[in-house]
Amino acid sequence: MVKWTIIFLLLAILAAMYGFGGLAEGASEVAKAFCFIFLGMVIFSIFLNFKRI
Questions:
Q1: Transmembrane segments in this chain: where (predicted)?
Q2: What does the domain layout of the chain look like in residue ranges?
């Protein structure tokens, strides 16, 4: 999940540098969504780990 976040973040940065505003905005939104999904999965996994103890 982190791999995809980094890929879309780099795509957004490159698209913004070359003037593709729409593509940069879309890629940054996807990267942001993947980042929040990843953080949610990490928090959920930590919660389940503490629940077992």
A1: 31-50
A2: 2-52
